[in-house]
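Quick illustration, no need to memorize.
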Amino acid sequence: MNAKSNLEFALIGLLKQKPQSGYDLRKTFITTAMRHYSDSPGSIYPALRRLEARGWIAAEAESPHEAADPRKRRAYRLTPAGEASLVRWLEMPVTRNDVIFEGSELMLRFAYMDGNVPRSSALRFLDQFERELSLYIGELRAQLEQMSSKLPAHTGVLAFQSGIEQMEAQIAWAQKARALLGKESS
């Protein structure tokens, strides 16, 4: 996907819901659980310009008399090309590297699935997420056994164990989510 940023996909996911101005998008980042994304104009507006240059979004003046002034507030809307890119991103397979390094991106993808991809895609995502995370946890458990035999009550070992238990909690969540979504699609 040519190394698009999570911020860009967060923006197009929000714009899929409804057209919004840069200011409205910044406000969403400030006032919701998405606050870990930068609400800085130095982040949001360059990302919007990149998305517009790609043809994924289009800007419109919020009123006809504002159209002549490029400094006036503009509402951005998702284009068909942007929607297609969003769907491709949502339907990407979950990989080992994703579960190791891209946990927040995975949850962003999952959050945007309803209304954008079929329910079967969300269920497939959860299956892949659980499979890849389970395999990785197996590797980590083997490492933990080796560490524990040498340093049974070492704080590093306990911290390592905490990380594994957090991942196991994610698997339990994925199983619950799959059960809930599976019931709704029946």
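The chain is about 65% helix and 5% strand.
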